[in-house]
Amino acid sequence: MDNVKYSAKEVAKAWLRLIRIPNLIILSVIFILLHVGIYLPIFYSLDIHSPLNGWVFSAFILSVVLVMAGGNIINDYFDYQIDLINRPSRLSIGKIISFDQAFVAYLVLTFAGIIGGFITGWFCGIYKMGFFYGFGALLLYLYSESFKKRLLIGNFIIALFGALSIILLWLYEFFALRNDAISFILVYPQFTKINLIMGGYALFAFLTTMIREILKDIEDVEGDRAAGCNTLPIAYGINISKRVVSILVFLTILILFVCQFIGFTHQLKLIAIYIFPAIQFPLFLLVYRLLKAESKHEFHSISTLMKIIMVAGILGIQLINVHIL
Length: 325
Known about the structure:
mainly alpha; 15 helices
């Protein structure tokens, strides 16, 4: 760690950068939009109160965010040598924050998140939900320590987390609703629509996260190779990686066409129309730019575009709200 004296502001910025505060905010917004855009309108249309009340819902978000923040810290903890090459200007650990401080913060945040998972699960009638947090935290540790260096396994794990975060909210909503038999019976006829929407978003989260993770591997190939990683672009080359990303993008576009068809047949026309200009067209643009890309800067720009597409998908949730109301 440097002997340079850093100001409190610089230290605070380093910690926020280390836990990936923008990503945590986006994750929180996803949960809020799903809750406000899908569940609350259904509950209100049936004249029932949300079973996942305000403070329990907030505690749920906080517990997930804490585990993810801990996962981000341990990821950078193990990635120090890689980041020296890929992102030297953005280093926090070993520069402003010591390795010991980072590891202690990881332990505190992770265990606080797991305990929060047990508490929120208990208030929803199933305390065992906390074990999901423990399993998730263990998987994040193993990902950072070794899985991310293996061919596609690390990409798959992070993509799976993207999908499971959507499913986790649905489980909390379900078990909280199950505590009130009358409300459960009233909402039961809406389960098909809820399952279609949540399943669709979970699949979208999985595919788009998988795409972005491979794009990041292409961008970071120099540092990953130096650290002995066996990512897709290292094992099979950048051109093959581009083809894999393109296949995943076209698969996503195809599935979105299916979602549009379902939307038109299930009174969700606005979201079906929104999908093309906000998601599908940018995905076509992404493939076009990817096939031409050669430099690290270009790959970074494409990865950023993928993140924008993911956010656009999230924002579309509110159009579902309009239909339900």
